[in-house]
Amino acid sequence: MMHAYDHLRFKLDPLDLRHAACMEIRASMLSGECRFMRELVTRGQWGVTQQLQECVRRRAVLSVKARPACGGDDVKAARVVNEVWDSCFGDTRPFDEIYR
């Protein structure tokens, strides 16, 4: 749902890795995919501090890495996610807060 919202609201270029990274950060953060219990029970990932951020970052890097423009390069995917992290992780539109 977040991907559809971002495409309609922001007119993203699907070939731009920065746009893709921001879209994936927002989707993982706002969809509930990275809730603590979901990570713990279904993925065996757990952590007390920064768990949400680590999950969102991990999922965004994997998604960007899978795009043809990235060519499967882990370093490039992580760099692009890091470049847009601050502006995209704080953007909860159209919601007031992160779903927990």
From TrEMBL:
Has a dual role in the assembly of mitochondrial ATPase. Acts as a protease that removes N-terminal residues of mitochondrial ATPase CF(0) subunit 6 at the intermembrane space side. Also involved in the correct assembly of the membrane-embedded ATPase CF(0) particle, probably mediating association of subunit 6 with the subunit 9 ring. It is an enzyme of class 3 (hydrolase). It is a peripheral membrane protein. It comes from Teratosphaeria nubilosa. Its main location: mitochondrion. GO terms for cellular component: mitochondrial inner membrane. Keywords: Hydrolase, Membrane, Metal-binding, Metalloprotease, Mitochondrion, Mitochondrion inner membrane, Protease. PANTHER family: MITOCHONDRIAL INNER MEMBRANE PROTEASE, MITOCHONDRIAL INNER MEMBRANE PROTEASE ATP23 HOMOLOG. InterPro entries: Peptidase_M76_ATP23 (IPR019165). One of its GO terms (molecular function) is metalloendopeptidase activity. It holds the Pfam family Peptidase_M76. This is Mitochondrial inner membrane protease ATP23. The keyword Protease applies. Belongs to the peptidase M76 family. It is found in: Mitochondrion inner membrane. GO terms for biological process: mitochondrial protein processing; mitochondrial proton-transporting ATP synthase complex assembly. The keyword Lipid metabolism does not apply. Its EC number is 3.4.24.-.
